[in-house]
Design brief:
The complex is a heterodimer of chains A (356) and B (412).
Chain A lengths: L2 E11 L4 E7 L4 E6 L4 E5 L7 E3 L9 E7 L2 E6 L3 E6 L4 E7 L5 E6 L5 E6 L3 E6 L5 E6 L13 E6 L5 E6 L3 E6 L5 E6 L20 E4 L5 E7 L11 E8 L4 E12 L1 E7 L5 E7 L3 E7 L5 E7 L3 E6 L5 E6 L2 E9 L23
Antiparallel strand pairs in A: 1-28, 2-3, 3-4, 4-5, 6-7, 7-8, 8-9, 10-11, 11-12, 12-13, 14-15, 15-16, 16-17, 18-19, 19-20, 20-21, 22-23, 23-24, 24-25, 26-27, 27-28
Chain B lengths: L9 H7 L6 H8 L4 E7 L23 E3 L6 E3 L12 E7 L6 H10 L12 H9 L9 E4 L21 E3 L16 H21 L3 H17 L12 H7 L3 H14 L4 E6 L8 H25 L6 E6 L3 E2 L11 E2 L3 E7 L7 E2 L1 E2 L6 E3 L4 H11 L7 E4 L2 E4 L14
Parallel strand pairs in B: 1-7, 1-8, 4-12, 5-6, 5-7
Antiparallel strand pairs in B: 2-3, 4-11, 8-11, 9-10, 13-14, 15-16
Classes of the chains: A mainly beta (356), B alpha/beta (412).
Chain lengths: 356, 412
């Protein structure tokens, strides 16, 4: 399943910034949250899709993270709250004050029993996904940067086997945790992603913005931005580092100067053939790297920063949360190269992953 | 030996304006011992993330507002310490300065007027060091700390002359090249000075020329500046005071600013860049507002505790504000049509909020103020008539731009 082409098939504009989303591949329904503080359902299968707002006193700031567990959505926000929503009723079920500062991201364990959230109180909190009861607080990340400014805890990821959790902060520090004991079992450093400029600007803009474990849970990809020339813009290379996290060995160190900006999300292909990164500066990118060699396999983009993507299990469709728009992309893959006498590609046309 | 601009070319330019010929006028104002600390937010801080929040609007960003100690007045949650310290501060929310370009915006907000061919207008620091400084002062009249690069411009004192250019600190927080040469012993240095004084006084006695007095003054100032390096040494402050200001460079520079005004320096500028948040505006303001909030609060507290706040005007200002519209990089761009600044302390009616913007922060709907009016207000707060005129040749130049008026609502 090597990506050959990406085609942007739909674009739905909005007045707000779409920060997070999830979707159901079968029904083509998308759920999203963003800068108007609301949570919405968006049925892309209808001829003229319209947002359907969820009811209830939910969030009072940007909705930054979302997971779907069966018929329940759980969202987090810069207001520090976590909200549980009934998908069918489109109503608020529960709201709790989860964090003292901006909640940045939320993930669910593979068995959907547990939720993990990270926030600028520099805590990772563990929650019972069903009841909302707090289970544990993981504390590791320093509240201030080495230069005495507030730090931020941007990213969280859980391994596909459910055993490991990773949290990443503004200064490029990643902690890895055992999800059973909640002990810290490892740490990684990606200092370039901090982007602190000690002389001219005394300011940073980067940080670890995305984390993802490989399908075998042995490797951890860390995404952010590289050294920035002009720090008042996101004018730095999209930066990806891949580690054997248990040994701490950095296996890949990739920077893309063609499509710049922050890597906001990382997705590994199920077979570990490639790594998809999404993000951007003023514009957005979707970039596929060969997971083994780091070679750039395919790249596309759009004229809006990408905050999050939601890909179905077969990657046939990718929904993209972006600045003032939601887009849908279709991914096509090449057929295996037909064997020919001279070994040259037979010119087979790209096809969708399901072979259609 | 001395790079500090305050001592170079002092004679000819000072003679061009009227201070030396009217020392009584200068000393009259100087005797009031008024000082100014300008916290220059280079690049343009966002009014929406500081003094004029609009939570709940699409333009408002993610931050909440905080109720301050002044009933009915709310500011961004990013300034929690300042929210309890507005008793001595006036917020102006209605600046409409129109120019949203760094260079031109800097000129406007540094001089209070747009350029005119054929005349070099002085910048605010030069005007105020001219108005508030003492001719025979042994400390610098104008110190500008500008260690970051964004928007770094020394500026020109224009027709006031180089005497009023700043001691401009860009690399280090202490002035360079004001120390006695190592090859010169202190005794030798003193003896040289005594000999020069002896000869100069005889020369001045026989030639009644005001320019010669200025020449003498320049030497006195050099000696004063050479002796003022201790003012920049914050290690002389107790640890508790250094902790009060905090470990960031901005905090340390604010502490130096307090030491300078305490010693009689009339104008100190502390520039803090990098507010030019075209990308990641909210992350940037989370970072920089924490610094501004802490350092500004520490400075106001310290000045108040020392009884200096009544005579010291603290200004927060930049080239412009930032757009209500959030761009694709989660940034805000340059915006000069509806933005904010603050005045604290000397001559200011604390707890005041002047002016109003519309619910999205896109336009001023009450109390529109331009750069000239702001400068007139600053002058009035310091007791300087805003309609005072300088004579440049035969041309009268008002100290604040033509037609500008102070805003009485923010004045004590």
């Amino acid at each position: 399943m090597i990506p050959a082409t990406l085609k942007r098939t739909n674009e739905w504009k909005s007045k707000d910034i779409v920060f997070c989303l999830t979707h159901d591949a079968e029904s083509q329904r998308v759920w999203l949250g963003g800068s108007d503080f609301g949570v919405y359902e968006f049925d892309t299968s209808s001829e003229k899709p319209e947002r359907q707002a969820f009811e209830g006193e939910g969030h009072t700031s940007y909705v930054t993270g979302m997971v779907r567990i069966g018929q329940v959505l759980v969202t987090c926000s810069y207001d520090g709250r976590l909200c549980w929503w009934d998908v069918d009723e489109r109503k608020l079920i529960r709201r709790i004050d989860g964090h003292g500062r901006w909640a940045r991201a939320i993930v669910a364990s593979p068995d959907e029993s547990t939720l993990y959230t990270v926030a600028d109180d520099m805590l990772c909190k563990v929650w019972d996904a069903k009841s909302g009861e707090p289970l544990q607080t993981l504390q590791e990340h320093a509240p201030q940067t080495p230069h005495h400014f507030p730090s931020m805890l941007y990213a969280v990821a859980i391994s596909p086997d459910g055993q490991w959790l990773a949290t990443g902060d503004r200064v490029g520090h990643t902690a890895i945790w055992n999800t059973d004991s909640h002990d810290k079992v490892g740490e990684l450093e990606t200092p370039v992603m901090y982007t602190w400029d000690p002389r001219a600007r005394r300011h940073s803009i980067g940080g670890i913005r995305s984390l993802a474990f490989s399908p075998d849970s042995k490797e951890l990809a860390v995404g952010g931005i590289g050294k920035i020339g002009n720090i008042d813009h996101l004018g730095g290379p999209a930066r990806l580092e891949v580690f054997d996290w248990q040994s701490g060995t950095r296996r890949l160190e990739l920077e893309d100067n063609k499509k710049k900006g922050l890597i906001e999300q990382i997705v590994w292909s199920p077979g570990k053939e490639w790594i998809l990164t999404a993000g951007g500066d003023n514009n957005g990118f979707l970039t596929f790297y060969d997971a083994d060699s780091g070679e750039l396999l395919h790249q596309d983009g759009q004229n809006a920063h990408i905050h999050e993507i939601s890909a179905g299990p077969d990657f046939q469709q990718i929904f993209v949360a972006a600045h003032e728009k939601l887009t849908r992309w279709t991914m096509l893959t090449e057929k295996p190269v037909a064997e020919t006498q001279d070994g040259v590609d037979s010119g087979a046309k790209p096809t969708a992953p399901d072979g259609k | 030996m001395l790079k500090a601009a305050g001592t170079t070319a002092a004679v000819s330019n000072m003679a061009a304006v009227d201070v030396l010929s009217q020392p009584a006028l200068a000393s009259e104002l100087a005797s009031q011992n008024k000082n100014v600390i300008l916290l220059w937010l280079a690049g343009g801080a966002s009014q929406l993330e500081t003094w004029d929040p609009k939570p709940g609007r699409l333009t408002g960003g993610p931050f909440a507002k905080l109720q301050t100690s002044i009933p009915g007045v709310e500011i961004s949650e990013l300034l929690p310490k300042m929210s309890t310290r507005l008793d001595e501060t006036a917020i102006i929310r209605s600046l409409n300065t129109k120019i949203a370009d760094h260079g031109q915006g800097y000129f406007l907000m540094d001089r209070g007027r747009v350029p005119e061919p054929g005349i070099q207008f002085p910048h605010l620091g030069a005007i105020l060091s001219h108005e508030l400084g003492q001719v025979d002062s042994r400390v610098p009249d104008y110190v500008s700390m500008y260690t970051s690069t964004e928007g770094r411009r020394q500026g020109s004192a224009g027709f006031l002359g180089a005497r009023y250019n700043p001691m401009f600190l860009t690399d280090k927080m202490v002035p360079e090249d004001i120390q006695r040469l190592e090859s010169l012993s202190d005794a030798d240095h003193q003896e040289r000075a005594a000999l020069r004084d002896f000869l100069a006084k005889r020369f001045v006695r026989d030639l009644k020329n005001p320019a010669l007095g200025s020449h003498e003054n320049a030497y006195e100032r050099v000696r004063g500046l050479m002796a003022s390096d201790h003012l920049f040494d914050i290690e002389r402050e107790p640890k508790s005071m250094r902790d009060h200001y905090g470990p960031t460079q901005f905090g340390q520079q604010c502490l130096i600013a307090r030491r300078l005004v305490e010693a009689g320096v009339p104008f100190v500028k502390v520039a803090r860049a990098w507010w030019d948040s075209h990308g990641q505006n909210f992350e940037t303001h989370r970072e920089l507002c924490a610094d501004l909030d802490h350092c500004m609060s520490a400075l106001l507290d310290d000045l108040k505790q020392r009884g200096l706040l009544e005579s010291t005007l603290v200004i927060t200002l930049g080239e412009f504000g930032r757009t209500p519209k959030i761009n694709g990089s989660l940034g805000r761009d340059h915006f000069a049509n509806a933005w904010s600044c603050t005045l604290s302390g000397c001559g200011v009616r604390g707890g005041t909020v002047f002016g109003k913007t519309d619910p999205d922060g896109k336009t001023v709907i009450e109390g529109e103020m331009n750069a000239g009016d702001l400068f007139a207000t600053i002058f009035a707060a310091l007791g300087i008539p805003h309609d005072k005129e300088y004579m440049v040749g035969s041309r009268p130049i008002p100290i604040a731009d033509f037609g500008s008026e102070p805003c009485s609502e923010v004045l004590a």
